[in-house]
Amino acid sequence: MLRPLVLVALLSLPMSAQAEMIEGKVASVADQGRVEITLPAGVSANPDDPVTLLADIPGLGLTAISTLWRVERIEGQRLIAVPEAPPTGTPQPGYVARIDSSVAQAGQAGARGEQSDAAAAQSGAEGMATHMPDIPLRQIDPSPAAENLYLAAQNLMSEGDFAQAAPLLRDAARRYHGHAMTELGALYAFGMGVPQLHEAALAWQELAAKYGEPDAYLRLGLMHLTGQGGATDIPMGREMLHKAAAYGSAQGMYLLALLYEDGTGVPASEHEMVSWLRESADYGYGPAQSVIGQIYLDGDAGVSADRARARDYLTRAAENGQVAAMETLAGLLEASDPAQAQSWRDAAHAAPANHENEALCVRDWECYDAVHPGAPLQPPAQPQAPAAAAIAGPALRTDEVQECDRLAANPFDADRPDPALGVDYAELDATRALAACEAAIARWPDSRRFHANLASVLHKLDRPAEAFDSAMVAAEMGSAQGMAFVATMYKSGVGVQPDPARALYWFERSADAGNVAAMMFAASMTINPDSPQYDPVRAAGFYRAASEAGYADGTANLGVLFNNGQGVRHDPAQAAALLLDALERGSQKAYQELLVDYSGLSPDTRKSVQRLLQTRGLYSGGIDGAFGPATVRALRAVQRE
């Protein structure tokens, strides 16, 4: 019986109280259609639960066998299912198995491996909880619209048409299709049908990981282990592979075995290596089946020789297309069954190259820098010298001011090449700017600011869906302005389905990238007590960031929070200082609070304002909190300074 996959000290996942659909993998097929299915850690089923088996057919995607199977018995993370009738199709190892179950899922999945010390054993999952995102259970059955978009994209990718597939994947991803998110990230990582943008690749994989996509964790692990698009980060790569394995990624388990074999980021351990190889092999991963079969054949890595188990694993590996296993199996069968041995030799000779069976490859075009996890890691590539860059081809980006910048640059966009540039939306000449920005993108497609500018232009021309697409391209390229635009459209529901949570997500990403407008929008969404996103502490943080970025209205709003004691302690003196500072810098919010509707300020804050005015020699009246003519004259003097 397999041990649970989840090491409590490494991973703690929130589980739903009741699961409607469970997804596993067919590990082996026996006579009369009986199948052995492996389940992810912490997931179980009931006897007699119905099971649907699906094949991933190129050009068609996941296609179900019409015959239903039923769970016959359960053995830990394995179950045996039998067909209700003679099957209309022949199942194979690796097929997806979907079990309709009402069994309650465990909140904790048990323990795997060893704790480093007593403190780790006591803290358990709690120790890693701070490192984990709040991951919902993976959506097994996405909406029909999202699934149709995803399947259409898969068909196009199987035909090599990545440029047409990318927008379909993006549309499916917007509909919370986790598979589409991770596939889109892979396209960006390798520049297949989209620009090769490692920031966008990482962002899509991280988002997909939040939806519990095993392939997203696998790809994140590969990216960090190999330094794909950035510096190598072995600890992060190892952590991502543990999460991939916990979600049932057989390739992630295999890569963990390699780490333990070589002691890369973990203590070298033959025991752990063999354990992860078994897990991976029993989940149907061909390379692991081949290696563990050889280990049992040789009696290696602390494992006693077992010819029967070796033959079983090698047969499974050979059936999964592993050439080395075919050749070894032929040698095993030479004496007992020469005809079968020759058959396997012929199969090995005729077998096509299969990059999907290489540890660092997900598909033939998706191989993450051929750096073995156990090999010495190479430093990041040095930038090309100017002469070499010129030989490589024309520049795809420019930092020089272009007509698109003059006509459509946003005043808050930090990417604009000249701080003096900036056109208010109301004054945007969209017709002239459209031609200029489309021409700029055609010549410099990797200059993200042009995509952000084009989004504003298309929105002004009442083409919101196209505006959203252009903004999303800019956002994926790392444009803070593009992120803010995407957030605004999610907030307003123009050009895309309204989604406040997504809006706040993109506003926060934009704010983290330094966009002041996004800071203010994010603050406005989290300061409203009627909003589901209400969080006054976060709002105060956003206003503080805007203030520190030099935005006067951010300073004024932070002053109001100190007056109210909202998200910060009640501090009348601090409130007064911030409001006066903002007023002096031309803040309309401060003008409203101090000179129009000052009754909203507490008496103590108003008294603190008068004291500060008195200190500056602008006010000589009483400190009574009453804003009479003398106080107003002093405030207007501050406004003029």
Report on the structure:
The protein is elongated, with a radius of gyration of 30 Å. The protein starts with 20 loop residues before the first strand and ends with a helix. The chain is of the alpha+beta class. The chain has 28 helices and nine strands. Mean pLDDT is 80; it is low at 1-20, 103-140 and 370-393. The protein has helices at residues 118-123, 125-129, 144-158, 162-174, 178-190, 198-210, 214-226, 234-246, 250-262, 270-282, 286-298, 307-319, 323-333, 338-350, 386-392, 403-408, 430-443, 448-460, 464-476, 480-492, 500-512, 516-527, 536-548, 552-564, 572-584, 588-596, 603-615, 629-640; strands at residues 21-29, 35-38, 50-57, 61-64, 69-75, 78-83, 96-100, 361-363, 366-367. The strands form two sheets. The protein has a six-stranded antiparallel barrel with strand order 1-2-6-5-3-7. This is Peptidoglycan-binding protein. Keywords: Signal. It comes from Roseovarius ramblicola.
